[in-house]
Amino acid sequence: MAKRKRLTPARLQDSAAPETKSALARPALTTRPPIADVAHDAAASAALSEVASALTAARSEGRLIQKLPLDAIDPDHLVRDRVALDPAEMQVLVDSISARGQQTAIEVAELDGGGYGLISGFRRYAALRIISAKSPEIDSILAIVRRPDDGADAYLAMVEENEIRSGLSFYERGRIVARAADAGIFADDTAALGALFGAVPRARRSKIKSFVGLVRRLDDVLRFPTALSEKQGLALAKWLNDTPDGGTTLRATLTDSAPETAAQELAILSDAISGTARAAQKNPNPPAEVTLSRGLKLRQLRNGRIEISGPRTADPAYVARLIKTLKALK
């Protein structure tokens, strides 16, 4: 049968061709299934919660470095163990931080009244203060917020940090022991020494103990205490122990002389020790005590002085006659 020919072209605009579908074609997904959204949101929430928990733990455990305003730091929160800052060493630190930024965080404790109390890192804090004075835009400091159990832990953290990073002089070690005891952080000097320097060798701890005695007797009259070497300080401490009234005499000499340099002060201390040594050589075995008439007692001291005591010394008239008699001696 012959196929009939079309006489006119098909008019596609009048009748649209029926839409066909391929058996292999898949419908495009315009949205995810609801269960995928729920799983995605749950995973994101869990991740954020884990990060927040980790940050909270790091902050509470003192493992998180924070940027704090310099003005929020109280450098006098603790009695500082460092007596003086060496200008040359400070300039090196200032130059280093200016060039490379702060490389090591300080340690602070959050204060009840707001702000933070400095525990360790006093030199870094002081250096940034110097830098901030010239460049006001530098007004923050990297810090780790510690939560010491008590004042003893805070003092121990300060001492340990300075022992590791920049050693203290023996005088400064002795001074912080005395000051921590005075502040009531420890029961006494012995307890403070054991707690703050319990990890150091016994020989060094013994030397620090000698310097504690030196601090107790001369701290308020010494102008350049950190200039004392270990050897000089130990010799001075021994002299003070062996010379009962030597501390009183030396204090008066230092006060009256008012040395302006460390060298002048060391010369005064050296003269005191050597003067006593010379007197001891002249009279190596002075009588401990001699009983005079009328109940008077005379005691010759190793520094060349004599001491007269007894009931009659309370009589002004008798003392006047005694002085007159002594002046008449040649």
Description:
- The protein is of the alpha/beta class and 330 residues long.
- The chain is built from eleven helices and eight strands.
- It has helices at 34-60, 87-100, 122-134, 151-165, 170-182, 189-196, 202-218, 230-242, 246-257, 262-282, 316-328, and strands at 65-69, 73-74, 106-110, 116-120, 140-146, 290-291, 297-300, 306-309.
- The strands form two sheets. Strands 1-5-3-4-2 form a five-stranded mixed beta sheet. It has a three-stranded antiparallel beta sheet with strand order 6-7-8, with no helix packed on it.
- α2 (87-100) crosses α3.
Task: Fill in the keyword field for this structure.
single chain, 330 residues, alpha/beta, five-stranded mixed sheet, 8 strands, elongated
Gist?
The protein is an alpha/beta fold and 330 residues long. The protein has eleven helices and eight strands.
Tally the beta strands: 8
What's the gyration radius in Å?
A: 40 Å
Give the biggest sheet. 5 strands, mixed
Q: Mean pLDDT, as a whole number? A: 77
Order of helices and strands: HEEHEEHEHHHHHHHEEEH
Q: Tell me the distance between the termini.
A: 171 Å
| Biggest sheet, spatial arrangement of strands | 1-5-3-4-2
What is the tally of helical segments?
11
Strand content: 5-15%
In helices, the fraction of residues equals 40-55%
- Low-confidence runs of at least 5 consecutive residues: 277-282
Principal-axes geometry comes out as elongated
Q: Supply the helix-strand structural class.
A: alpha/beta
